[in-house]
Amino acid sequence: MRLLLLRHGATEATERHLYCGSTDLPLSEAGRQALRQLCCPKMERHCTSGMARTNETMQLCYPGVAYERIPALREMDFGQFEMKDYLTLRQDAAYQAWITGDNAANCCPGGESGNQALRRAMEALGQIVEAGRDCAVVTHG
User: Fold this and answer.
1) Long-range CB pairs of 58-65, under 8 A, 24+ apart, other chains included
2) Is the pLDDT of residue 117 over 90?
3) What CA–CA distance (Å, rounded) separates 47 from 58?
4) 27, 56 in Cβ contact below 8 A?
């Protein structure tokens, strides 16, 4: 069994260095162009998180294939920090509390922790692996 993990292509948020997890953005034109250059191996099964950027990446990498949407594969929810950058947030006490110390365990206000997102995604990946079929998964960072 082979598992191919593909990171979605660039979006406006990645180009502007914004925290973007739960915001459902499409790919940027630069993201689309880069993916058109990619050669992906044939797989039996195809999955995405269901977010626009992962679905569009799948369609560019595997044109015309049917794919499953598994919401548990989505990116971490950055809560109040969603669609903001470091320069905007650096003086925010809640942001400093989040990034200071164990930021994998610290929750974003109104969002989730890195550990919570990791557990959710690993459980979903475990179920994909248990199926025992070659699978391409388009996911987030």
Assistant:
1) 58/136, 58/138, 60/9, 60/27, 60/32, 60/35, 60/36, 61/6, 61/35, 61/136, 61/138, 62/136
2) yes
3) 8
4) yes
Regarding pTM above 0.90, the answer is yes
Helix (H) or strand (E) holding 33: helix 29-36
d(CA 10, CA 57): 9
- Reading the block at residue 62, the tokens are 């595997």
The pLDDT tens digits of the residues spanning 63-86 come to: 999 999 999 999 999 999 999 999
Quick: pLDDT tens for 122-139. 999 999 999 999 999 999
Query: Is 49 within 8 Å of 75 (Cβ atoms)?
Result: yes
* 129 vs 123: CA distance, rounded Å: 10
Following DSSP, what letter does each residue of 48-67 receive, concatenated? E-S-HHHHHHHHHHSTT---
- Tell me which residue of 73, 54, 50, 77 sits closest to 121, measured CA to CA: 73
List b or e across 66-84, with b for residues whose CB sees 16 or more CB atoms inside 10 angstroms: ebeebeebbbbbbbebbbb
